[in-house]
Fold this sequence. Notes:
single chain, 2 domains, seven-stranded mixed sheet, Purple Acid Phosphatase, chain A, domain 2, six-stranded mixed sheet, 25 strands, alpha/beta, 5'-nucleotidase,  domain 2, elongated
Amino acid sequence: MQLKILHTNDIHSRFENFARISKKIxxxxxxxxxxxxxxDFHDFMSIxxxxxxxxxxxxxxxxxxxxxxxxxxxxxxxxxxxxxxxTNTQLIPYLSCNLYKADKSLIKGVKRxxxxxKSAVKFLIIGATPAGPSYNEFFSLENMYASDPIEExxxxxxxxxxxxxxxxxxxxxxxxxxKEIAKKIEGIDIIIGGHSHTLMDEVEVINGKIIHQSGMLGxxxxxxxxxxxxxxxxxxxxxxxxxxxxxxxxxxxxxxSKQKEIAIEVxxxxxxxxxxxxxxxxxxxxxxxxxxxxxxxxxxxxDLSIINSGILSGGIKKGFVSNKKLLEICPSPLNPTYAExxxxxxxxxxxxxxxxxxxxxxxxxxxxRGKYLGRLHISGAKIKHDGKNIIDIILENSEFNExxxxxxxxxxxxQRGTGYESLGRCKNEKYSKDYxxxxxxxxxxxxxxxxxxxxxxxxxF
Length: 461
């Protein structure tokens, strides 16, 4: 018996690529094909996903004929309400055997596993979401918890004993975790992975388990051909197909257009009016980023706040503000963050920010959806400089001391030391539930903050 598993991972709402993938799936599919996604299909930077609270993603997966999708960290970080909105469509099974509400109760509509029957061969498909302290710190903001996946996978295999022939673990744990699971857990036959964005030239077999993953952003479609005899895999072959030259599928394009129209209507409703033009700049100080810095310092009581201009992709023109505009200029799902940082590390980061090549470097990092790193902006201090070096940092209420520990409001992106490494030498981090976009939405409506953001903080001498 010849069967085929087509799979993707970490699409991150690159829907044009997905329209190509859908066309290739259409070409390859037959009655013995299973189609799976290993998580982070949704990215709430996209208008379609944000404006439909995730429901558009369910529709796209359904139109493409997917059999299941696992819940990745991006789906998880969107919160219980959005997850339940996705599952409520009942268009595709969402899998996670280890993601719960904070009280360990089940999230409505999320399945631990499913069984798919193809030509009398029964496939048990188990999904899992990233766990551990670094993820649960963010899941806890949304009243969720991800438990140890190994324990949960073993439980699911045991509970389905005798009900299936082949077990597929649909993992959003990353390639290293997948390899460990292959070594530790018996009963799994195939691991279709995601999260680490690994593009595999060919499958890796560990402890008899076939492991395959297909890069990121919908650039490849994974193909795993398996030959089954008497309920066991006897032979297999694999490839990752580059889809860049595949035509766009018409029916997917129509569905994308339909969902985008729905989302734009929802997101375009005017929220309030801004009375001044708040421009944006990657290299120089700009009022829109100053406003975000001021807002962070107001939301999180602290000595000063620091934020990079690359977190924003544009400014706000005088007139009405909508959620669509806010999503366009602040797409990154990043959280306001409290951290304690030594004065010398703050100064080092600020001085580095004087260099244009630093501001213009690729801002890539966890959660970042912009292009450039950008200039650091500050609230609670003035910075005297000569264009190359910092002459003095003048705090509002005291003298700046390089050997003092300061409380800082920033983002989880900068707190990790992304781009400005010295800011990562911090401690006692605490994360806020809202995204930076939510903070911006609230404070753009405050006239005193709009006026204050034009006060220069970088003073050239």
